[in-house]
Automatic annotation (TrEMBL):
Organism of provenance: Teladorsagia circumcincta (Brown stomach worm)
Listed CDD domains: SPEC
Record Pfam families: Spectrin
Protein name: Spectrin repeat-containing domain protein
Coiled coil: 169-196
Keywords from the UniProt entry: Coiled coil, Repeat
PANTHER family, per the entry: SPECTRIN/FILAMIN RELATED CYTOSKELETAL PROTEIN
InterPro entries membership: Spectrin/alpha-actinin (IPR018159), Spectrin_repeat (IPR002017)
Keyword field contains Signal: no
């Protein structure tokens, strides 16, 4: 047990810092395993302490050595508690930063895909086709509106890192601004598309009405000629 604690102390000194979300997740899994093992070791120490009266009867000459060993290991484990707690907080801090960066990248891709749809040039070849495109534009609007809380959540996560005094706060400010700008561009593009489709609908409706009127007048002419 003492050897395990000594080895852990050495590992914590020379351990490499995670460089991305994948490696920080691996490090956090390892951290969880260490913390679980620490609990088991502490329970084992408690069991040894409870057994000391029995050991005193069975091995009175060895009791002092056993007790000294237990106390040494107990002290060593206690020394590891604070560094392990600090390490967990550092890993959580790094994971939050890496996750924020990943989320921003993912959302910018998501926005780019919808922006391509919002910039579509087709305005409908006729009135039914225009109505079909308007329906698609409304579906896109609904999707974007439903997605907006997640965008706000990501920006809030970045703001929490900044407020906590993260060393990369300036970069996080820029990423938040980039995401908000991209989001606003998407919303503006959708509004513009809906406006253009509305104008197209008016034009197609006018042509449709003219066609209907022309057909009606033709019918009336035929009726008058009879």
């Amino acid at each position: 047990m003492k050897e395990w604690a000594s080895q852990l102390e050495k590992e914590m000194v020379r351990e490499d810092q995670p460089a991305d979300l994948t490696t920080v997740n691996v490090a956090m899994q390892k951290q969880q395993m260490i913390e679980t093992e620490m609990i088991k070791k502490a329970q084992h120490i408690d069991q040894l302490m409870e057994m000391e009266p029995q050991l005193e009867e069975m091995h009175p000459d060895e009791l002092e050595d056993i007790r000294a060993h237990r106390l040494a290991v107990q002290e060593q484990l206690q020394r590891l508690q604070a560094p392990l707690g600090d390490r967990r907080r550092q890993l959580e801090r790094k994971k939050a930063a890496f996750q924020f960066g990943r989320d921003v990248d993912d959302e910018k891709l998501w926005i780019a895909e919808r922006l391509h749809l919002a910039h579509a040039k087709q305005l409908g070849e006729n009135l039914p086709d225009c109505h079909r495109l308007q329906k698609n534009a409304q579906l896109l609007t609904n999707e974007v509106e439903n997605h907006e809380p997640w965008i706000e959540r990501i920006c809030s996560n970045g703001r929490e890192l900044i407020d906590a005094g993260h060393e990369n706060s300036a970069a996080f400010e820029q990423r938040i601004a980039e995401l908000r700008d991209a989001w606003q561009e998407l919303k503006d593009a959708i509004k513009d598309r809906k406006d253009r489709l509305a104008e197209s609908e008016k034009a197609h409706q006018f042509l449709y009405d003219c066609g209907e009127a022309e057909a009606w007048m033709s019918e009336q002419e035929l009726y008058m000629m009879q």
